[in-house]
Write a structure and sequence with these properties.
Low-confidence stretches: none
Structural class: mainly alpha
Mean pLDDT: 85
Strand content: under 5%
Shape: extended
Largest sheet: none
């Protein structure tokens, strides 16, 4: 007995790397967040977290995240 191929639609299709649907959803969510007016509030929360008791845990999470990285994109130029 053969399995029938699953129908390919935008909700179940694996677009792989460069997934346009996911990029579109991410961009929309980011735009909605900016429009919500909560950017400054969340930035202050992050600043408080980095100067408080949460700092060691946040630093550990950063190290773990960076350990999965292939390095900084050479096209990215940092200011400062």
């Amino acid at each position: 007995m053969q399995d029938k191929p699953k129908p390919q639609n935008s909700e179940s299709r694996n677009e792989g790397e460069g997934n346009r649907t996911a990029a579109r959803e991410y961009n929309k969510a980011q735009q909605e967040f900016v429009k919500s007016g909560k950017v400054d509030e969340k930035a202050r929360e992050a600043e408080r977290a980095m100067s408080g008791d949460e700092k060691p845990e946040l630093r550990r999470a950063e190290v773990i995240g960076k350990s999965h990285s292939h390095g900084e994109d050479p096209a990215v130029r940092r200011k400062g």
